[in-house]
């Protein structure tokens, strides 16, 4: 089941990074120069996760994909709002986008803190939604109908 879950999560992350699935991570009034988007593939990953088996298998995948989707979703926004950037620059922007949540503290500590809190909450939700759940089995039960008489 893990390969299918990983494939669905990767497809959702790619859609989020492409701007198809996006949720604003903060108001542009707080930090208009760094308006970004956060794509969250958690819903798709948790629906495909059976919630049983290895406790950390799906949680690790969910945390990595959520972080990647949230950080890479900034690339289309940067391309759209930065003069001189084109779609050909997207590959070059990947490393910068992945470290952006931490590099942001140097030029805007308040915006960096707000973004870090939102990113932490998103990754925490991803980890909780894909956590293994215990399976309780009750029984045995008698399922036959007794003849009266």
In short:
This protein is mainly alpha-helical and 149 residues long. Helices cover 58% and strands 3% of the residues.
Radius of gyration: 21 Å
| Structural class by helix and strand composition | mainly alpha
Major sheet summary line: 2 strands, antiparallel
Number of strands: 2
Question: How many helix segments?
Answer: 6
- The tally of domains stands at 1
Distance between the termini: 51 Å
Morphology: elongated
Measured by DSSP, the beta-strand proportion falls in under 5%
Average pLDDT reading: 73
Low-confidence stretches: 19-48
- Fraction in helix: 55-70%
Order of helices and strands: HEEHHHHH
The spatial strand order of the largest sheet comes to 1-2
Your description of this structure?
The chain is an all-alpha fold and 149 residues long. It has one domain. It has six helices and two strands; from the N terminus they run H-E-E-H-H-H-H-H. It has a two-stranded antiparallel sheet. Helix 1 packs antiparallel against helix 2. The longest helix is centred in the C-terminal third of the chain and has 21 residues, at 109-129. It is elongated, with a radius of gyration of 21 Å. The termini are far apart. The model is unreliable at 19-48 (pLDDT under 50).
List keywords for this structure.
149 residues; mainly alpha; 6 helices
Q: What's the topology here?
A:
Blueprint: H1 2-17, E1 23-24, E2 37-38, H2 42-48, H3 57-72, H4 74-81, H5 90-107, H6 109-129
Antiparallel strand pairs: 1-2
